């Protein structure tokens, strides 16, 4: 899968990230998005801090985060925001990675570095123009952030496959996903993404032909 700078804003606005995301209910309270139309600048947002009020709106397993952990979480939330269909910002996503940072699409075993990181977001947005992520559970442990989420959207763009082009059919997807972010000095060194592709393709109306594989032998 091929995935995915504007004005700076105040730290207390939670870098306007939550406004573009669907946040699932937190373990102890319902979570509602922060509505803020301010944009994000890639060079300043990473230094923004998240307030206790911001953290309360997130499905965190533990809200007692250090300042360093809050800064790391702000970087990751910003990357989710700029991956949304209504707020795509490829440059901000790419610039959040370290010089040798890598995005690993773990299920198909593909890795993206450097300029190739810019291919990540458009791929999903082309398939699902309204793509968004529902964050269900977030665990922050120093420089490692683990997130359970769902990728959701409407199949409205063509899918290129080895057998040809699969035409869009307007199907809705809701795909279980697990993301693991590894940061250092405010930059993403490694992002391991596990997407439930079999579920996604099935929801899109693409079913693998097991019979043809069996009949080969």
CATH class label = Alpha Beta
Task: Give the overall average pLDDT.
Answer: 82
Q: What is the rounded distance between the termini?
A: 30 Å
Strand count, sense and barrel status of the largest sheet are: 7 strands, mixed
- The CATH architecture can be named as Roll
Percent of residues in β-strands: 25-35%
Count of β-strands? 9
Quote the CATH topology. Nuclear Transport Factor 2, Chain: A
How does the helix and strand content classify structurally? Answer: alpha+beta
Q: Count the DSSP helices.
A: 6
Low-confidence stretches: 1-20, 25-47
Q: Output the radius of gyration.
A: 18 Å
Strand order of the largest sheet: 1-4-5-8-9-2-3
- From the spread of the alpha carbons, the general shape counts as elongated
What letter string, H or E per element, gives the SSE order?
A: EHHHEEHEEEEEEHH
Helix content: 10-25%
Protein name: Ketosteroid isomerase
Keywords: Isomerase, Signal
GO molecular function: isomerase activity
Signal peptide: 1-30
